[in-house]
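Sequence, please.
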């Protein structure tokens, strides 16, 4: 039994390493183009070579790292303008569908939308960039969860992970108290069963977020 437990411990360590590096990427601790060499990562985080290798594979699969076609070196990459537009197009599809299904949502699902919006405002007051991003993702994921499909929700979370790549390169993300109130307003509209206005408010929020992100990416490119 003792021998059978060892892989679980190592897998847990892989999860921790992946989570740690994701956190550092999302909070902008690495500039775009930073190379992630296996030996360097192993030394920096004081983990085994196998743990390092598995973590890097996971980060590549999730799109946080990409392999340089010439050198095969793994590097941190951010999204292009076209990729950002694609992600927001997909977000409108997923989240719009979530609102369409909200009329069949349970009290628990509606409560999660409201609670997550309140939590976002609290995180904005505290000012931790990573916690703010996580809190906003919770809000939007709660809307998509109204569809009632765990598979769809997981697909949507993958989109958010990709979007985090672009947010990582922005020193001051769009999220502020005004944006937090927008989430509260959307939640209130859903609870009040005003689905038309809820979708209108949601799409206005997504449109503004997309414009802000694209402007920031263009500014950094210039």
């Amino acid at each position: 039994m003792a021998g059978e437990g060892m892989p679980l411990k190592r897998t847990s360590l892989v999860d921790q390493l992946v989570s740690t590096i994701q956190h550092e990427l999302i909070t902008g601790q690495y500039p775009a183009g930073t190379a992630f060499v296996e030996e360097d990562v192993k030394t920096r985080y004081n983990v085994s070579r196998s743990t390092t290798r598995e973590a890097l594979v996971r980060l590549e699969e999730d799109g946080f790292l990409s392999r340089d076609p010439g050198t095969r070196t793994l590097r941190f990459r951010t999204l292009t303008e076209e990729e950002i537009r694609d992600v927001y197009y997909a977000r409108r599809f997923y989240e719009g569908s979530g609102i369409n299904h909200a009329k069949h949502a349970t009290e628990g699902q509606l409560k999660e939308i409201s609670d997550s919006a309140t939590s976002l405002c609290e995180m904005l007051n505290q000012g931790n960039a990573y916690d703010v991003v996580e809190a906003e993702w919770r809000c939007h994921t709660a809307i998509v969860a109204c569809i009632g499909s765990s598979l769809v929700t997981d697909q949507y979370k993958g989109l958010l992970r990709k979007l985090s790549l672009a947010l990582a390169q922005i020193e001051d993300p769009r999220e502020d108290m005004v944006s937090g109130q927008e989430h509260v307003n959307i939640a209130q509209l859903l609870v009040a069963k005003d689905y038309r206005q809820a979708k209108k408010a949601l799409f206005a929020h997504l449109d503004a977020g997309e414009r802000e992100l694209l402007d920031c990416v263009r500014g950094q490119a210039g």
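Confidence is low (pLDDT under 50) at residues 1-9.
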